[in-house]
Amino acid sequence: MAANNKASYSYHQNGTHQNGIQQNGHSNSRPLNGEKVACIEMCFFCFDVLVNHLNNAAPPKNPCFTNDPFPLFVTWQMGKDKHLRGCIGTFKATNLHLGLRDYAIQSATRDERFQPINLNELANLYVSVSILTRFEEANSYLDWEVGVHGIRIEFHTERGGKRSATYLPEVASEQGWNHVQTIDSLLRKGGFRGTITTEVRQSILLTRYQSEKITVSYNDYSTWRNQLTANSVH
């Protein structure tokens, strides 16, 4: 397991449950014309979705940002130290309106590592939206850059079972890990229990990718929402 919760992004073998990555491949999605895809409104929308869900209110209307399909993650963190409260996403290119609506709820309430987020926690929450792009098959387990690439590995356990795991781009640098430490941690998180040797590392199939990440606090969201309400009155 990782040294702290910020590293707890990994892969679940069946669907989008704990650690939340679907096992049906990834997309080679790239931003059109080199333009950024992730925007602050995506985080505001995730807060809208969660707030309405926790208050048993009707879901919010579709937002105005792009609905193009991309792989994505939604991450919830809590408090000044931003400890992890949920992180679920998919490697499948998913239309952003539906994908963010779905994973905002899943990551907040269905990450099996944590109790569901409740109303009392809202004021201390942060939400991050990560749009995954530029997927490339690596030449080796070392063929990626710490702090730039997220990595997805596929490997066989000591019992012969096929497993996968991923870390988002920020994880290795936040933990102060080098390439080998990251790979070894990811193998353990993915379920490898045997001795990790150079041969084991070399047998890995590694895909590297990048992400656009936006983070917003509940305070930022609340200010934005209050401004919208005030403007609608005038």
UniProtKB/TrEMBL annotation:
Residues 1-28 are annotated as: Disordered. It holds the Pfam family AMMECR1. It comes from the Eukaryota. SUPFAM superfamilies: AMMECR1-like (SSF143447). InterPro entries: AMMECR1 (IPR023473), AMMECR1_dom_sf (IPR036071), AMMECR1_domain (IPR002733), AMMECR1_N (IPR027485). Residues 31-225 form the AMMECR1 domain. This is AMMECR1-like protein. The lineage of its organism: Eukaryota, Metazoa, Ecdysozoa, Arthropoda, Chelicerata.
